């Protein structure tokens, strides 16, 4: 049976990183529905993130996106975060929104565009130095739309060259997280389409290059927990971008579409030691119609619930059933954990952390939503609906 104090300790130490862009307005290509009180500055995004951390107790870091969070002084922004009990997390680069990147960024056929893209990635490492961030997250929209449009293998060479220049620039305690996505915006080839491509590049680069698994970036039916198990085993799982999807890269709240899948993923994380090996549990979501801060709180809670259930799996009983070839018994052990209502356990964990047992109610009671709606006028669009 599970050791409840150990389960609680693991839940208290798990940190979920929230993305700055989830606090701002975002939408689909059809419409951005503006919401009252959304942040107008990176500082206001941090103010909101501090509310999420205050009521959940487990969201102490915030991922930034450059240039959406561009400021004059990143050291000062880090200090601002610290004053609110937060730290700045992964720096997300952006080599997808300039006209120059129509045919790619680091894989573009024109060396001048490649140089520009690499310059941005290196600038992101400078920013990491100033913010004290550990992780650089790289997602490339690079790819082609038509067969013959460009040389598939040559693009891999160009990608490898840029990645290795960035890798060389990383400090000893910094990491590079390479994110893959099977399509969109490119519709024929994508230069980093899958975990295998990301893994192959990271393997060549070295131990400070690891893969980021965005849960919305796979073809329907893909067994994501298998990928997670394999990457963990190879010490190449660096991070998650958590969200959920019904169709493609929907960026809905994690755990909303398929909580069972999230549990299966978290079970592999727990089983593979990923709770303590530096894997970053980041959210990458866009809240288009639901209120932002409560949606982020809900997502953090969903990650915690899946983690709690994964921690409750009776590993000894599972091992016995597996050894004995007891197919149904083994499955039942897993399902027992999944079907446990972990909400009372998490309420206890929160009380032990000195916060209210129900984060949603605590946020509602805080009055923050009314305050920002009154004080902030003219909030910004996050940048895009990815
Ligand atoms: C794109 O689809 C991705 O999920 C990325 O993680 C992207 O970098 C992120 O949305 C912020 O730019
Ligand atoms: Zn992502
Ligand atoms: Zn995405």
TrEMBL record:
Enzyme superclass (EC): isomerase
Alphabetized GO MF terms: L-rhamnose isomerase activity
Domain Xylose isomerase-like TIM barrel: residue ranges: 73-249
Tagged with keyword Isomerase: yes
Keywords noted in UniProt: Isomerase, Manganese, Metal-binding
Protein EC: 5.3.1.14
Record protein name field: L-rhamnose isomerase
Organism: Streptomyces rugosispiralis
Gene (name only): rhaI
């Amino acid at each position: 049976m599970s050791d409840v104090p150990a389960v609680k300790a693991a839940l208290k130490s798990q940190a979920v990183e929230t993305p700055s862009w989830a606090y701002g307005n975002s939408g689909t290509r059809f419409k951005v529905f503006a919401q009252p009180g959304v942040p107008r500055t990176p500082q206001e995004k941090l103010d909101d993130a501090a509310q999420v951390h205050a009521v959940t107790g487990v969201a102490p870091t915030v991922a930034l996106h450059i240039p959406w969070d561009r400021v004059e002084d990143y050291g000062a922004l880090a200090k601002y975060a610290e004053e609110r009990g937060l730290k700045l997390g992964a720096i997300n680069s952006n080599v997808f929104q300039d006209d120059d990147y129509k045919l790619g960024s680091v894989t573009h056929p024109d060396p001048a565009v490649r140089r520009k893209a690499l310059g941005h990635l290196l600038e992101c490492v400078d920013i990491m130095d100033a913010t004290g961030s550990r992780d650089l997250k790289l997602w490339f929209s690079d790819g082609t739309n038509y067969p013959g449009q460009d040389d598939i293998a040559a693009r891999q060479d160009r990608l490898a060259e840029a990645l290795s220049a960035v890798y060389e620039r990383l400090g000893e305690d910094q990491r590079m997280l390479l994110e893959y996505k099977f399509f969109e915006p490119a519709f024929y080839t994508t230069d980093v389409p899958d975990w295998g491509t990301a893994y192959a590049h990271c393997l060549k680069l070295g131990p400070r290059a690891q893969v980021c698994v965005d849960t919305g970036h796979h073809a329907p039916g893909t067994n994501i927990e298998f990928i997670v198990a394999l990457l963990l085993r190879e010490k190449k799982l660096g991070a998650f971008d958590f969200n959920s999807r019904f169709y493609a890269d929907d960026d809905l709240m994690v755990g909303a579409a398929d909580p069972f899948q999230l549990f299966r993923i978290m079970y592999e994380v727990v089983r593979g030691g990923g709770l303590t090996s530096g894997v970053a549990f980041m959210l990458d979501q866009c809240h288009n119609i639901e209120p932002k801060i409560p949606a982020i709180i809900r997502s953090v809670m969903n990650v915690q619930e899946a983690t709690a259930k994964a921690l409750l799996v009776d590993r000894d009983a599972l091992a016995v059933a597996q050894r004995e070839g007891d197919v149904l018994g083994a499955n039942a052990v897993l399902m027992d954990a999944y079907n446990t209502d972990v909400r009372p356990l998490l309420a206890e964990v929160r009380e032990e952390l000195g916060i209210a047992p129900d984060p949603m109610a605590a946020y509602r009671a805080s009055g923050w939503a009314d305050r920002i709606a009154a004080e902030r006028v003219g909030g910004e669009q996050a940048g895009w609906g990815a």
